[in-house]
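Q: I'm writing up a methods section and want to include an example of the input and output format. Could you take the sequence below and give the corresponding predicted structure tokens, formatted cleanly so I can copy it straight into the document?
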Amino acid sequence: MRVLWLLAAPLGVMKTVVFNDTRFDSSGTWIDNALRSLAACGVCDEVFVMSIDERGDGMWHEGEFGQYCCLKHERVNRYRKIDYRLVEQMRTVIDSLSPDIVHIFGTETPFTMHSIIAVDSRYPWCIQIQGIISVINRYQFGYISSKDMFGNNPLHRTIGEIWKRRNVNRVAEVMEIEAIKRATSIICGTKWGSDICNYYQANATIYNVPLAINDVFQNACWSIEDCERGRILTISENNGFKGLHQVIHAVASLVNQHPNIKIVVPGRKYDLNAKISFRTNPYLRYLVRLCELYNMKDHIEFLGVLSPMEMANEIKKANVFVMGSAIENESAALREAMYVGAPCIASNVGSISEIITDGVDGALYRYEEYERMAIKIKRILEDDLLAQQYSENGRKTIRAKFVQGREAGKILLKTYEDIMVRYNR
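A: Here is the clean output for your methods example:
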């Protein structure tokens, strides 16, 4: 079976082989894991991965887990219409390869529609749902008012920021919905995501293929004895809908009772004491003002980009893991934390209730109610038995619901076979 993957941005393993770029990029690591799971099934020679990048050369490069190709082209995240020059480039490569199936990853950028047009129903194809931008757009600012988000920005810059975000995201939303409507085979790892897809395309066949998780998380193990008391690990700092501001609201109320409490955030590396310019991400400016309001600058640390091994070690060190997003389809970070065994708290949004049962293997709260998040953090910090219950039950839950390695690869191959049979009917 000759499998072609199409991605909007090159994977980490691709960058190393194609560009000799060894800098780690935390985005898309779950796709790297899926590639490894296919390789574990012994199909490396028949897996081809194509993406676009300004550094691309259009040549195939042999890698450890498959063949990689990057077309020379800028990213299409902000495109308002289809670039048919890129479509023709992609079509030429696809036809020269003549794949048995084409797997298109993600629907959040216009690259998906470029891919669908390039494939043009000449080969069996499917799309895989990651985030769903048409839903994410509703939570873009994470319930932060425009006044709070943009603060004392000059008026023209504030208007420009709002217009840019809404306009760019609206274009991506329209193309995403069109992509879902055209798809007859959709891969999605959650019931929530499947329901959203069925809303737009009732006749599509939807395959439940959960995210693959790196083995380093499966092999790491959290313990109450080894964790750092008061250390709160959370997720991305880059967008309002990821909810870091809600975590700050919650933790600020606990500082007097737990003076050593600290929020640690993987992602970008920031110095909250550095001067913030108007050109800086408005959400970061808002976080700085929030930390100043609560006198929290000594209680938050931005860790920078972490490799899977570094992230696993951070999870082991955490007293509590908090997933505070306003919306999530498949939260890889939450699943990784549960695999390692950290006590987890999450906002009850999107598919999260499919992963955590409140009070059994973790704690849930409504996104808006950071007061309840604070109480649930406090209970875990002060009750070791509860922390151990969430840890042990969380590990059992995640292992029972999700397979890894070669077994995950087998599920994906079986999905491809079924899509090919349906296409050839």
